[in-house]
Fold this sequence. Notes:
By secondary structure, the protein is of the alpha/beta class. It folds into two domains: 111 residues, Lyase, Ornithine Decarboxylase, Chain A, domain 1 (Beta Barrel); 207 residues, TIM Barrel (Alpha-Beta Barrel), CATH 3.20.20.10. It is built from nine helices and 17 strands. Helix 3 runs parallel beside helix 4 and helix 4 packs across helix 5. The longest helix has 24 residues. It starts with 19 loop residues before the first strand and ends in an 8-residue tail after the last strand. The mean pLDDT is 97.
Amino acid sequence: xxxxxxxxxxxxxxxxxxxxxxxxxxxxxxxxxxxxxxxxxxxxxxxxxxxxxxxxxxxxxxxxxxxxxxxxxxxxxxxxxxxxxxxxxxxxxxxxxxxxxxxxxxxxxxxxxxxxxxxxxxxxxxxxxxxxxxxxxxxxxxxxxxxxxxxxxxxxxxxxxxxxxxxxxxxxxxxxxxxxxxxxxxxxxxxxxxxxxxxxxxxxxxxxxxxxxxxxxxxxxxxxxxxxxxxxxxxxxxxxxxxxxxxxxxxxxxxxxxxxxxxxxxxxxxxxxxxxxxxxxxxxxxxxxxxxxxxxxxxxxxxxxxxxxxxxxxxxxxxxxxxxxxxxxxxxxxxxxxxxxxxxxxxxxxxxxxxxxxxxxxxxxxxxxxxxx
Length: 373
């Protein structure tokens, strides 16, 4: 069941019901523009990952600033994007099972749809679903570039899949997915650069082998918010897929930039608005945002503008330790928490509350919330 929005246009921020997922619009829009500016003149396409925001309204804003389309991880996410008006979606995942493949192929009647494979049998199933639907699907071969998850070796195994895809009339072989997700949160820029140099070398070798076999390999796609500059500069990747850059989170804030500076390419734009619901001790406050309001897989949330530490979460409670400067905090006070990991936190909410200068300006539905199939 979709819950009613926790706010109305024109409300003050302190009137918004909690917990609520807040987007600070000035920071969010600045992040969109910064990424578009980063890619000007590089020849690298932006295909941002919609698994972060799960919202067609945001996807269309990204495309208005030059993104070629979006990525998704699940068919359900792709359905929400396409039905919301997005015209180009790449599912950067393996889709297995007849039912899911029929749904995926049906979307290609409305939009350009791509999918990844790392198995010949799955490739044949994708081709059969596309033929049954009377559509053509874009096909990417996922190669393993250091993450240790999905993907074939970037050698003759990748060549064999590329040749098989190119032989199918209802598939359009587009290239390689070479995503090094484990590199995104390596803390030092040197570690991230080394990981992506390795990934790019493997991707470049696979692309060369495929083209030597007579199959065009126009796109190498991958990258994330933590390493997008490395892939952009690699001369191998010509499409990048960052997602979290629009919002940022507390875990990305732990990455370091050049010279041990803060990784501040983008601004924090996503917050959970929470209310102080108990003050049991001078140094303790309890807020109404616990495990059901935020994800803690990447650590506890930060707290904006208040000297306090979020100590731990239970289902509906978050326990804070207050520094001396924060102990005047009163029952009913509203706090902005910075999620540890933005993607799974977003998946807990039905609505974004867009705020500018302390007033609610926008309410956006999170259409792909819970889209896990």
